[in-house]
Amino acid sequence: MNEVVEKVLVSQEEIINRCVELGAQITEDYKKAGEVPYVVGLLKGSVPFLAEIIKHIDLDIQIDFMDVSSYEGTKSVGDIRIDKDLDCSVQGMSILLVEDIVDTGRTLKEVERTLLNKGAKDVKVVSLLDKPDRRVVDIEAEYVGFKIPNEFVIGYGLDYNQKYRNLPYIGVLKREIYE
Ligand code: IMP
To answer: How far apart, in whole angstroms, are the C-alpha atoms of residue 36 and residue 8?
Structure first.
């Protein structure tokens, strides 16, 4: 275990098993609806989760990535700047957004709004983690890997100062590292 990790919250095995379940659920739901989602990962945190979950989605999907930064303005609901946009138009598309974690929910809400404004037909969200206690805007992911308590976590895409994204598990960061 990495020395900055207090404890492992979700193991690699648990993540992979959950990706199998979520992939099957997503496959079933989209097949029922007669749709194939355009799978959009939010950089950089979604990369390991996206790479795992797409192996378990049995549909002829396309994948793409967006990179957004949020403005910490004076208003409680922030705005976002798109640093890397999608490769093609989303007009009329069903989008499946892939996120590492839903925390306050601000990022997802803004990305969802942006995609709908650009003409997406439908936006659903799959997130590896969910911290429901921290939510400040009204948004829920349709598919959630694990609900976790309000602790700062790293690994499987999640960073602290851009590091530890490559850990193969979700770990709680030791308080002494950031306090
Ligand atoms: P939100 O807009 O507050 O929901 O922020 C979501 C983003 O905050 C995630 O995509 C992460 O990049 C970051 N974040 C939130 N909680 C954590 C955490 O516990 N560890 C690492 N990054 C986090």
So the answer is: 35
